[in-house]
Each structure stands twice: as structure tokens, then as C-alpha cells.
Amino acid sequence: MSFLKKYIRKYWKLFVVAVLFLTCEATVDLMQPTIMSKIVDVGVANNRMDYVLKMGSVMLLITAIGAIAASARNILSSRVSQKFGAELRSDLYRKIQSLSFENIDRFERASLVTRLTNDITQLQNFVNGLMRIFVKSPLLCIGSLIMAIRLNPHLAVVLAVVVPIVALLIVLNMRVGFPRFMRVQRALDEVNGVMREYLSGIRVVKAFNRFDFEMEKFNRTNTDYQMRMTSAMRAMAVFNPLIMLTMNFGIVAVIWLGGLRVDNGQMQVGQIIAFINYMTQILFSLMMISMVFNMFVRAKASTLRIGEVFGQTNTMTWIEGKTVNSTTGGRIDFENVSFSYDGKDGEPVLKQISLTCLPGETVGIVGSTGSGKTSLISLIPRFYDATSGTVKVNGVDVKELDPRLLREKIALVPQKTVLFTGSVIENIRWGKEEATPEEIEEAARMAEAHEFISSFPEGYETNLGQHGVNFSGGQKQRVSIARALVRKPEILILDDSTSAVDVATEARIKESLKRYAKGLTCLIIAQRITSVMDADKIVVLDQGEVAGIGTHDSLLRTCRVYQEIYESQVGKELQRDA
Questions:
Q1: Exposed (0-12), middle (13-18) or buried (19+): which is 313, by Cβ within 10 Å?
Q2: What is the Cα–Cα distance from 137 to 282, expressed in whole angstroms?
Q3: In this predicted structure, what is the pLDDT of residue 336?
Q4: pLDDT-derived band of residue 339, with 50, 70 and 90 as boundaries?
Q5: Which residue, among 44, 66, 67, has the nearest Cα to 55 in the 3D structure?
Q6: What is the Cα–Cα distance from 390 to 114, expressed in whole angstroms?
Q7: Packed helices 239-263 and 156-200: angle between N→C axes, nearest 10 degrees
Q8: What is the mean pLDDT of the chain?
Q9: Tens digit of pLDDT for each residue in 39-62?
Q10: Where are the domains of the chain?
Q11: Distance separating alpha carbons of residues 353 and 227, to the nearest angstrom
């Protein structure tokens, strides 16, 4: 919870001002029963209308002062809580962006969404309540106790019994509620996870008519969330009636004991009225404290979950500001590199990889599904760090390089095409923010995207739907390639980025890349062996190990794995043609 210190330092002054207004408001509330008792015991009892009017005017005046204080407090509390929530959400979002993939993989994506939304809202609501009722309730409770004891010490014995019982109920309330609300937030993670999965795969669901299955899956998680929430609320709901019952017993005892004292001439009727008012204020205050503790329990659970993200220390370290030496082009060296997603104790997906990619080379990477192709290229821009061995770019260990500066030299077209809501030109400009229209058009031509983009009525200003839903798979891939090419990087990584385009279009893209890629290190991961046959060097991976390195002709002679891939994709077709 140390992450909250920043916000405490920033907002404590406004908080203190709000507390001052709250104190003024609570003081007004505490004065009213005493004034009322005087009106009854002095004005009404002695038939002094002038005294009644005078004290009634005083009561109206202090009530007006209390209303002004309450309005000021409401304005302050709303402003501070909203600013706090917005700033915390921005800081958490920034923190998530700064973490490595290894850190982010420790959380479900749906859980991160819940923490950014619901958990922060819970904390924001608590801060708002803290400035509105949580501070006022203890002030009112303590003040009412003091005023009641001052008014009649004998009746205050009732409070000495009632208040400790209520305090015990509130403590039990917290102990019972906290673990339940932690489970509620985890159940909400599950609901968000199912919703996110369904919405991202809605086309597949409709294509296979699996709506009923998805509905059943959602209902299971939704029912689980409902049951956990009901369990938490049911447990919390027991305590409020118990607190109310205890306080009402106290009021009955006050009326009974006060009546006896009035009969004996030891107490006046106005004092009983005032004492009951103070008892009612104590009851109201304790109910509010109980409600705020309920909010606190939920806020505490949310705070711990938010703190888990802020508590993450980036697993990557580097020398601040150290960048790639561009004089040597885009050389890449893998020296005995092994990698596991689960750290040193996990099952390695790459084993003792040694490989050199020279500046200006086009290197193809092939292998069966799960052989480690994408994992290998993920080590170059430092999405992950090698478990052992060294990955070098231009002769420097990437672990020493500032990831932000390293990635400025690299352009990546990922296996799963990702486009963002906005225009085509905005998506291409992700590669180079200051790119001119001419540079964008040149990149689009090389990616064979210019023709279909120009065919749209709005051309490059055509808006893409979410994830480019209004574009075909091949069109999205070509826009993604244009986004990488406009960057003019030293290293270009194409991760199976032409799988959705036809063979003729792929051939034209490759021809453009040959002209464009002079002096550029280009790594091409491909499922189709024809996509890399003309590469300067082909790396064959098999179960995380290098099975062969060489040209297409040499690998056909010497590498069994490459021969099998070639035979399965090309050889049988040639035999059929023959």
C-alpha cells in the first residue's frame, strides 16, 4: 500500500480543509439537541415565548452554517476523489506499460482490466466517503458521547454498555467481510475474462453456432460471481440489524431510566429529549461507521490488488540511455541462448541456440509449430530476456541496451496482426510518427497495400473498425507490413506476416523487400517454405534446437527436418504434377 503515499502527500491539504468543514458541520449537529432541551425546559416549561423565538432563531442560524459547510465539503470531496481516481488510473496504466512481458504474464489480462476499472472505482468511492461521512461519523459519535455524559452522567452508564458491544460487532464485520470481498473481486476477474474472450472471438462463435455454449459458460461465471457477492453481502447484512437492535435497546433503557428520574424530580423532560437525540446521533454515527467499514473492506481488497501491480519490479535491467551502435548495421548474434517462459527452473523452449545474422542478410526461419520460432525473435527487441546465453545487436548485449532505444532500430510485423481504431494513415504512422504522406505511400506500395487503399473513397483517411474488422486478413497484414517499412529500421522482423496473402502478392512484396532491404537485416518467419527458399540463409528449428543452417540447396542435401518440411509442402505437389 506504499503506492498511496504519493497521493496522500498531494491531496492532504485539501483533505484537511474538507475535515475542517466536516468539523463545523458536526459541531452544528451536536449543538442542536442541547438548544432544543433548553427550549423545552426553559421556554416551554416557563411559557417564555421570547426565549423560544430567540433560541429557535439561533438554531436556524447554526443550521444554515452547517448547510454551507456541508455543501463546501461535498464539492471538495467530489473534486479530490475524482482527481485521485483519474490520476491513480493513469499511473497504473503507465505502470503496466512499463513492465516487461514476464511481469505482465503473471496476471490474467482480464484481471488487469478489472484492476484498472472496478478496483480503482472501489478505492475512489472510499476516498469520497472518507471525506464525506467517515471523518464526520467518529466526530459526531465522540461529540455525542461527550455531550450526553455532560448532560447526564447517570444515564451515560447505558452508553458504557452499548458502545463497546457495537464496536465489537464492527470489528467482527471487518474480519468476516474482507476475505469474502477478495473472492468477489477474483470472481469479477473471471466474468471479465469470459466476456473478453467471447467478444474477441465473436466471429468464430457465430460461425460454429456455439452461442449456447458461450452463454452457458458466461452464466456459470456470472452465477459464481452472484453467489460470492450474495455470500459477502449476506454476511455483512447480519451486522447492521444487530447494531441497530443494540442501540434501540439502549434508547429504551434511556427512556425507562430517564422516566424514573423525572418522576423523582432528578431530571427534566428536555434533558431526556436531548439525551435521546444524542443516542440517535450515536446510532446514526455507528451505522455510518459500519457502512464505511464495509466500504473499507472492499477498498482494502482492491488496494491490495492494485498494490500487486505497483509492487512489480521490472525484471529487465539496462544502462539508461545506452543505444545501438548504428555504424555496424543490423548484426544479430545468438550465443548459446536458452530460454524458458517460466525462468531458469522451467522447461526451455529454446536450447543452446548459436546463430549470427549479418547486416544486409535476409534470414529465413522455419520449423514445425511449437519449434520456438516466435520465441527466438522475441528475444531481439527484448520482449523477453534469455534465460542463459547472450543475444547481441551490433555486438552489444541487449541486456545492457535501453529497450526503448533498441526498439527504435527494429520493426516487427507480428504473427497476429494488430491494427488500431482510426484511419489507415494513422495506423501506418505508428511506425514513424513524423512520416510524410510520400513516405507512407512508398511504404504502402512496397507492402502491396497502396492499390487497395486507393480504391476506397476516402483513401488513406479510411477508418478501420476495431482491430481492423472491416479489412480482410490479407489487407490487414499488408497495412501492418507498411507500418513496419515506413520506420526504415536496421532490423526488420516478419513473423509469418504474409500467410493471409496470395502467392503472387507475396512474391511482389518479397521483390520490393529485396530492393528496400539493401543493408537491412531481415528475418522472415514462415510456415510456407516457398516464402524463404530464396533467403541468404535459412535457420531450421526443431523442438527449440537448431536442426540446420544454410541455403535452400544445402539444407535439402544435409538437413533431415528441412527435407521433411519441403517434402510435405512442395515435394508431393511436384510428384502429382509429374
A1: exposed
A2: 8
A3: 92
A4: very high
A5: 44
A6: 37
A7: 160
A8: 81
A9: 777 777 777 777 778 888 888 888
A10: 2-310, 326-409+489-577, 417-488
A11: 51
- CA 367 to the chain's CA centroid: 36
Note the Cα 560 to chain centre separation in Å: 47
In order of 285, 342, 451, the CA distances from 276 in angstroms are 14, 65, 84
Residue 542: φ, ψ to 5°: -145, 110
Residue entry with cell 435521546: 276
From 3.40.50.700, 3.40.50.2000, 3.40.50.300, 3.40.50.1820, which CATH number describes the 326-409+489-577 domain? 3.40.50.300
Q: Which residues pair with 524 in a beta bridge?
A: 364, 494
Report the CATH number of the 2-310 domain: 1.20.1560.10
In this prediction, residue 470 has a pLDDT band, given cuts at 50, 70 and 90, of confident
What is the amino acid identity at position 468?
G
- φ and ψ at 478, to 5 degrees? -70, -35
DSSP notation for 264-326: TTSS-HHHHHHHHHHHHHHHHHHHHHHHHHHHHHHHHHHHHHHHHHHTPPPS----TT----G
| CA 236 from centre of chain | 28
**Nine-digit cell at 560?**
533431415
Q: Beta strands 422-423 and 463-464: pairing type?
A: antiparallel
pLDDT confidence bin for 131, thresholds 50/70/90? confident
What pLDDT is stored for residue 321 in this prediction? 66
| Residue in 363, 360, 399 with CA at minimum distance from that of residue 382 | 399
What per-residue confidence (pLDDT) applies to 576?
45
pLDDT (0 to 100) of residue 495: 86
Neighbouring residues of 263: CB distance < 8 A, sequence distance ≥ 6? none
Centre a 10 Å sphere on the Cβ of residue 298 and count the other Cβ atoms it contains.
25
Please, what is the end-to-end C-alpha distance for the chain in angstroms?
A: 72
Q: What is the rounded average pLDDT of the residues 244-262?
A: 76
Higher-scoring residue by pLDDT: 288, 75 = 75
Say yes or no to pLDDT of 500 above 70: no
**pLDDT at residue 577, rounded to an integer:** 46
Average pLDDT on 259-277 reads 72
Q: What is the 3-state secondary structure (H, E, C) of 462-524?
A: CEECHHHCCCCHHHHHHHHHHHHHCCCCCEEEEECCCCCCCHHHHHHHHHHHHHHCCCCEEEE
Average pLDDT over residues 402-416: 85
For 417-488, CATH number? 3.40.50.300
Burial code (b: 16+ CB inside 10 Å, e: under 16) for 172-204 equals ebbeebbebbbbbbbbbbbbbbbbebbeeeeee
* Within this chain, domains 2-310 and 417-488 share the same CATH topology: no
- In the DSSP assignment, the letter for residue 195 is H
Most confident range, picked from 49-53, 497-501, 558-562: 558-562
Nearest Cα residue to 521 out of 328, 383, 327, 331: 331
Locus of grid cell 448532560: 151
Q: What is the per-residue pLDDT for 572?
A: 53
The pLDDT tens digits of the residues spanning 179-223 come to 787 788 788 878 877 877 777 677 677 667 777 888 888 888 888
